[in-house]
Amino acid sequence: MGKEPGTTKFQVDFRRHLRDQNISGNLVHLLCEIAEASKYVINAVRTGDLGVAGTSNLYGEEQLALDVLSDRIMRKRLMHSGVVCNIASEEMDEIFQVTSNPQGMFSVAYDPLDGSSLVDVNLAVGTIVGIYQGADMLQPGRRMVGAVYILYGPRVSLVYSVGKGVYEFTMNQLMEFTLTREDIRMKPSGNIYAPGGLRKKYTPENERYLRYLEDKGAKLRYSGGFVPDINQILLKGNGIFLYPALTDTPQGKLRLLFELNPMAYLVEQAGGAATDGTTPILDLTPGGYDQRSPVYIGCRDDVEKAREFLNGND
Ligand code: AHG
Ligand code: MN
Ligand code: MN
Ligand code: MN
User: Fold this and answer.
1) How many other CB atoms are found less than 10 A from the CB of residue 90?
2) Pick from 7, 17, 8: nearest CA to 165
3) Which residues of the sequence carry a binding annotation for Mg(2+) 1 (predicted)?
4) Which residue's alpha carbon is nearest to atom 6 within ligand 1?
5) Helical segments of the chain, H only
6) Confidence check: pLDDT of 224 > 50
7) How would you write 138-206 as a 3-class SS string?
8) How far is CA 140 from CA 10, 130, 221, 227, 249, in A?
9) Ligand 1 pocket test: which of 120, 152, 220, 226 has the largest number of ligand atoms within 8 Å of its C-beta?
C-alpha cells in the first residue's frame, strides 16, 4: 500500500505498537478500548447538543450535556472491557464498581471531556485518563501503571505512557491511530508559560514568579483547555503550565485524580516535573476523589524555580 498523504514514516498502528512494547495483554486491551471510546467522544463533540444537562458533577459543578454524554461513552466502554474493576469520573458522584474481584484488573480515573465549556466556541478539548493496577485509586499517582490523553483539535491525537516513555499517535483518515512521535523528551527549561486563573487573585509569590518568567522572555500561551495547553508544552518540550493557589481558592482549581495525576505521570515520563508548590504531584496521597491541588507542571528547571519562589528561596 503506497504512502497515504500526510501519513507518517512510522505507519505503526496503536495496537501493534503496544504489543511491540511488551505491554501485558490486559493493559493493551484497556488502552485500545480507551482509544476506541475516544472516537465516539469525538462524534459527540462534533455533533452533540451544546446545552446544559440540568445536573451537577462530583464537584457540584453544572454539567453540560456533552459532559454527561462523553462520561457515558467512556464508562460503558470501560465497564464492558472485561479488565476494569473500578471506575472514577470527574462527572460521576461516586465510584462505579464493575467487579468486586480486582485480580488482574485495572481501576480507571478519567475526565471524559476536559474543557467542555470551550466546545461552543470551537476551541480544542480532550479526554484525560489515569490507570491503576487493582482497586485502589486513592494512592499516590506515582503508583499508576499508565496515563493517556486524547486531544480533539484540528487533528485528533492520543498521547500515552505506561512507564516506558511517552508516545503520540495521530488519527488518520481511516480513524486509525498511527504513531507520530516516539519517546517524547522535554528540555530542562522553556520559554512558554500558561498561567491559569485570574491574575488579580494571584498571591505575591506567584505574581513574582510570573514576573520572573516574563523577564526571561517567556511567551504567554494559554487557551483555557488543560489538554491542549499541556500538549503544546509537552510536545514542544518547552515551558510551564501553572494553576496556582489563588487568594480565594487555596487548593487551586484542577482535580488531582482526573487531571493532574495523569498529566504529571506523562510529563515526568518525558523528563519534566509537576509540583503543588511543595510536593511532587505524583507523591500526593489523595484525601478523596474530589481533591483539587495547585499545580506547576512542565520543564523541570521552571518547576523547580516555582518551588523556590513559593518557599521564599528566590
Ligand atoms: P473541565 O472542563 O473538565 O471542568 O476543566 C476545565 C479546566 C481546565 O481545562 C483548564 O485548565 C481550566 O479549567 C481553566 O480554568 P480557567 O477558566 O479558570 O482558567
Ligand atoms: Mn477537567
Ligand atoms: Mn471535565
Ligand atoms: Mn467541568
Assistant:
1) 25
2) 17
3) 90, 111, 113
4) 115
5) 14-20, 25-47, 65-79, 204-215, 226-236, 261-269, 300-310
6) yes
7) CCCHHHCCEEEEEEECCCEEEEEECCCCCEEEEECCCCCEEEEECCCCCCCCCCEEEECCCHHHECHHH
8) 35, 12, 30, 21, 23
9) 226
pTM attached to this predicted model: 0.96
Classify residue 269 by its DSSP letter.
Answer: H
ipTM metric: 0.97
User: What pLDDT, on a 0 to 100 scale, did the predictor assign at position 10?
Assistant: 67
- Give me ligand 1 centre to Cα 99, in Å: 32
> Which residues approach ligand 1 with their CB closer than 6 A?
90, 111, 114-117, 196-197, 224-226, 253
Give me the phi and psi of 11, to 5 degrees please.
50, 30
CA gap 277, 311 in Å, rounded: 8
Question: Tens of pLDDT along 63-89?
Answer: 999 999 999 999 999 999 999 999 999
User: Mean pLDDT, to the nearest integer, of 182-209?
Assistant: 97
Check residue 117 and report its DSSP letter. Answer: G
**Structure confidence by residue, pLDDT tens digits, 83-130:** 999 999 999 999 999 999 999 999 999 999 999 999 999 999 999 999
Residue with cell string 485495572: 106
SS3 percent helix, strand, coil of the chain, rounded to 5, is 35, 25, 40
For residue 102, the CA-to-ligand 3 centroid distance in Å is 27
| Joined grid coordinates for residue 279 | 510536593
pLDDT over threshold 60, residue 4: no
